[in-house]
Amino acid sequence: FVVTILFLALIVLTPRHWEPSQENWHKWAAARILRETGEFPLFAMGPLYVVYLLLFSWIKYPFSVTLEYFITHMFSYIAIYLLLQHFVRRRYAVLLTVAWIPHLAVIEPGGVLVGIGFVCLYLMPGKSTLRNQGYLPPALVAAALCHTVYFAFLGGHFVGTLLEARHQILFRFRIFSFGKTTSKNIIAGAIRIILLLLMSAVVIFPFS
Q1: What distance in Å separates the CA atoms of residue 177 and residue 169, rounded to the nearest whole number?
Q2: pLDDT tens string 186-208
Q3: Quick one: average pLDDT of 140-166?
Q4: Is 202:43 a contact under the CB 8 Å cutoff?
Q5: Which of 24, 25, 100, 171 is the least crowded, having the fewest Cβ atoms under 10 Å away?
Q6: Are 33 and 50 in contact (CB under 8 A)?
Q7: Where are the beta strands (DSSP E) in 2-89?
């Protein structure tokens, strides 16, 4: 029901005749270069967002751009709602999310909006290896790989985690630490490895 409301609000409140900005077209061009040459964009381009655009680059324009827009925005709106409903009643969380749609609808490039969604997942209360635990939590790493502005959040978390562990005699670099062997921990570890491999690919196979 909430997803339906957010989807309808997205349709109604999105400005008519919206088109991607020049900065967003650069991301689409990077996705095309990645598809045709296998060369990864620089960190400044948001490599994870470019890989995400690669999924839509096989679809004909303008449907590819429209589909990506709706999926990207729905992801972010749902993530914002999931965060808000921990602090206010669900109906108020829906209203607040809808109220922000006119502003969020024109935020570009899309990597910024995807990053907002990942940061909201990171900020949700409770500990989770998939969101906010470890020195490199998957949610924040994903946000940073979508847009460089989120590297500040990732760096803050990393430093905070170091300070939290300062009382330990032995420093444990828990990037790949799964803890107990549970499916969630294994998935979290796999996500970290995939994201780190993407970071490595940007260095090994950069744009020429």
Answers
A1: 18
A2: 777 787 778 777 777 766 666 65
A3: 85
A4: yes
A5: 171
A6: no
A7: none
- Provide the b/e sequence for 48-68 (b: ≥16 CB within 10 Å): bbbbbbeebbeeeeeebbeeb
Q: What is the pLDDT of residues 100-128, one digit of tens each?
A: 999 998 888 889 999 999 999 988 887 76
What is d(CA 15, CA 24) in angstroms, rounded to the nearest whole number? 17
Q: Is there a contact between 42 and 206 (Cβ–Cβ < 8 Å)? A: yes
Q: What is the DSSP string of 66-103?
A: HHHHHHHHHHHHHHHHHHHTTTS-HHHHHHHHHHHHHH
Residue listed under structure tokens 């020429």: 208
Closest CA to 53 of 86, 23, 91: 23
Q: Is the pLDDT of residue 170 over 50?
A: no
Burial class (CB in 10 A: 0-12, 13-18, 19+), 77: buried
pTM here is: 0.82
157 alpha carbon, distance to own chain's centre: 16
- φ and ψ of 143, to 5 deg: -60, -45
- 128-142: burial string, b at 16+ Cβ within 10 Å, e else: bbbbbbbbbbbbbbb
